[in-house]
Structures are given as structure tokens and as C-alpha cells.
């Protein structure tokens, strides 16, 4: 209408959808890293750098601080070698009291991460493992996501996949399970992700949420930035239709309204099935198919 200005379309900051300012910001950040010998590994391509730029809204100083902290953290924790060197031998036992993991892909080709927090027995978790070992498990899982799962999904989809779908299932629990220990574990995992692996969540569905959860969410969302909050959907028990619009029924576990059981593996949370099963990581970057060792052109 007359007198009203149309709202400017904001570029997302993803490759292929950047404004001129964002493109200049990427060039400036890339030049800064090169001139200061901060990150010369080929894994740090433009897609990788853009995740940090988007996380800090292309603010150069904030992005530099975040990335420098990230590089220091990787060096201090030997993260470059954690896939090969860290053995989380208690994983199968842990999954009985803390069911979580990646399971197949959604209709967009994104890897699906599922966590059954309603089935979590927090006291049993720390009888099986320690906080330190659990943090290393999270880090190793993130590294496998970036170096194997995303590249494998990209190879299958025929285009770049760099974000995933997360489903948090609260079925089987009540507000009583949300103890200080559980909160601490959630915050621990969230901090590793937000500080060192930004911009990898495409969407999150929290399903089977009890009525009282909305009150908890009102508090929790205050610690989450607005951009991330918009990616999160809270649903009660009537979520199956929404999930089936995102995920093929054969890829969605039965306990979430799909048809997959992974019975031969002891359940979907223990199978870890996905296109990544057909690939292996190559050095210094990239993946290749296991059966023919033919390297793909997808590095991430």
C-alpha cells in the first residue's frame, strides 16, 4: 500500500545466498586467518568459515574471537585426532539408560539426531561413564558429523548438506526427570555445540512434551538466541503428522510414529544406520565409498 515500505529480504549467509556485505565479510575473515596462520587446514573452507560468521551475525571481531577460541580449544583437546584416538567403549551400555544417536535421514537428505530424554536414567549414566568422557563422546560425535555424516548425506543428495534435524523425545518421563543433573548434562552438550560447532542444527522437534514443560521452556529459551529458538518446535503427543511430513515413514522410528524398528540391531537407537555406513573418511579431507574406494568430490 502507499506509504509503506516493503521489508527488505535478508540474505541467509549460506553459500549462494549472501549479500555483497556478507561476501566481503567472508573475504575479510578468510584473509585474516591466512595472514595470521590461524587455520591452514583444508577442512576450513568457505562453508566451514560461514558457520562461524553466521553465528556471530558477520561481526568480524566477534567471529575472530569465537574462531580463535575454537582453534585453541581444538589444539588443547587434540580434537583433530579424536575420531581415531578416542575409544568410547561404554557406548552400548550407556544407550540402555541414555538412548541417543543418529538414525537415517529426513526428506531433505539431512541426518536425523534423536535423543530419548524421557528414557534417560541420569544416575545410571554416571555409574557407567564420567562427565569428562561424555564430553569427549559429544566432541567425537560432532567431528564424525562434519567429516563423515554430512559429506555422506551430501554425496547421496547430490548437493551440500550442512545442517541436520534433531528430535528430542520426552515420552516416558515427567517433569521430575528434569533434575539439576539432567539440566547440567543438557547445558554441557549445548555448550559444546554452540561454542565449537555452530550452525549445524536445521530444525529441532521436542515431542511428547508434558504440559508443565511449557513453563520450563519459557525459562530455558531465555538462554537461547532468537535465531535458534525459531528452529525449535515444541509438541505434545500429537506430533506424528508433522514429523512424517519431514521424514519418510521407513526412516522414522516406530516410537515416533514411523515404521522403522531396526529390530536386528536391537532398536533404532543402537543401529546408527544412515548413508554414512557406505563411506569412510579420507585425509586430509573428504570421503570415499567403502566398497570401491572411489573418492567422492564432496569434502564436507
Automatic annotation (TrEMBL):
Pfam families xref list: CRAL_TRIO, CRAL_TRIO_N
SMART domains reported for this sequence: CRAL_TRIO_N (SM01100), SEC14 (SM00516)
Superkingdom classification of source: Eukaryota
Domain CRAL-TRIO, first and last residues per copy: 90-264
PROSITE patterns found in the cross-reference section: CRAL_TRIO
Protein name, entry field: Cral n-terminus family protein
Organism: Stylonychia lemnae (Ciliate)
Gene from which the chain derives: Contig1180.g1276
